[in-house]
Amino acid sequence: MAEAGDRGRDPEDLKSPQDQARESRPRREGVLPAERLPVILEVLPSDNYALLDSGDGEKLEQYGPYRIVRPEGQAIWRRVLPEAEWRKADAIFTGDTDEEGLGRWRFPKRPLGETWPMRHDGIDYLGRFTSFRHVGVFPEQATHWDHMAGLIEKARRPVKVLNLFGYTGLASLVAASAGAEVTHVDASKRAIGWARENQEVARLTDRPVRWICEDAMKFAEREERRGNRYDIVLFDPPAYGRGPKGEVWQLFEDLPRLADICRAILTPKPLAVVLTAYSIRASFFAIHALMRDTFAGMGGRVESGELVIREKTAGRALSTSLFSRWVAE
Ligand SMILES: C[S@@+](CC[C@H](N)C(=O)[O-])C[C@H]1O[C@@H](n2cnc3c(N)ncnc32)[C@H](O)[C@@H]1O
Fold it and tell me: How far is the C-alpha of 301 from the C-alpha of 271, rounded, in Å?
């Protein structure tokens, strides 16, 4: 069962989430962390995933056994592969109906099921055709997963990871597989269900993962009040989102507060806090400045830049998101 948190017991819960979210917190005092930027983290083509080609507003990707075509606004260049290669696609996102799930996809060769097998670094999981043109995984996140797994393994002690806005749980499963105790939070009951399914597919059901369907801000605030602490916090918020009780998440308004709470809920010997942001009108300098201010007085280093996917054919880099991470050393 997904936990829903102890609602109703804490007087802070009686405040509307918007009132809580907009209470600003003072600027942190202290020397700013060292900095490193720009850092461009690249995902290269692999057996599991490859960006085969892109151009003319679309991208052609290989997800395990399937070749998939989706819109890509940033692909303002021309395609390299001939049309015949693009026509070999198993699935094309059309988005031309209001239907849920598979209704927005076309399968030119034969009808496909909703999910298919995928694998990352020995962890099995499911790719999935969803109505938002997403496929159950953001492959560009793989560099963050590998970095985090390295920190967990190197720590040689019990490590607690909090994954906010965790979606289908891949970061959570990579952390659990590396030996961490994981708390995964997402507002969508359906996404929590997919994440739990991935845990089974990955054969990691014996690992300590708490799956929590909750508003990320509310959950983080509650953890701060309860004194629950984490060694690594990941947060990958959308530009706009809603919690399960209609709580509104607006990145530009709410990110500074959530970043500050992420700092407040760290253990005395934390390892890292990793922020990814996408679909926003901002430069990575903006989230870099926020993270450096937030981690003032903590030592360590803030590294910021972009997550990009390197194309297989022409080697062009497709930018997917901005990131900024504080690392203790
Ligand atoms: C882009 S996904 C995150 C991707 C994920 N980090 C990964 O790498 O697979 C954004 C997620 O945020 C969740 N979400 C949106 N608003 C939320 C909120 N207020 N609290 C918690 N989760 C929220 C959505 O349900 C969605 O699963």
Answer: 11
